[in-house]
Design brief:
alpha/beta; about 160 residues; 3 helices; 5-stranded mixed sheet; Beta Polymerase, domain 2
């Protein structure tokens, strides 16, 4: 299966889980709900032959968090599976059980955005210092540095 995947093939495989749209000649975007992310990724990996996770990207659009799972395979078509999470309860099932490489991306996203990946085997800090404040996530649009908060590193002596 080295031929590019058509949008019709993707829509047929993803029936009931989301709709596909052409983003570029070799990139197709599929939007689904957070409750079907695991099932949708299983279909993309199985029926559509995407055997490589490129990355998981995240955006804070001010009203919701958007997650995008970018996958490809021998067909060289990139499928970007997107979903939105509420800012009030940013939680989604971990996919590290079906995509082992997703575990590291989920840790990074948790560290920087505070999104909780339910079922992740070790959701601990990977980018921020261990002494970073637990309830502050620097890539959120509403994050502001606290004037008297210590964010790790070397403390400066005031003279």
């Amino acid at each position: 299966m080295n031929q590019p995947i058509s949008i019709e093939t993707i829509n047929e495989a993803m029936k009931g889980m989301g709709t596909a749209e052409m983003a570029r000649s070799n990139r197709i975007r599929v939007t689904t709900g957070p409750e079907t992310i695991h099932e949708a990724l299983t279909v993309i990996m199985g029926s559509l032959g995407c055997d490589r996770l490129i990355t998981i990207s995240t955006a804070d659009n001010g009203t919701a968090f958007e997650l995008f799972y970018h996958l490809t395979g021998p067909h060289r078509t990139i499928i970007s599976l997107g979903t939105k999470l509420s800012r009030e309860m940013p939680k989604i099932a971990s996919v590290s059980d079906i995509l082992l490489s997703a575990g590291i991306y989920e840790r990074q996203i948790h560290d920087l955005f505070g999104i909780e990946f339910l079922g992740h085997p070790g959701l601990k800090r990977i980018i921020l210092n261990e002494d970073w404040p637990a309830d502050e996530f620097p890539l959120r649009k509403d994050w502001k540095r606290g004037p008297d908060t210590f964010y790790g590193g070397i403390k400066e002596e005031k003279i």
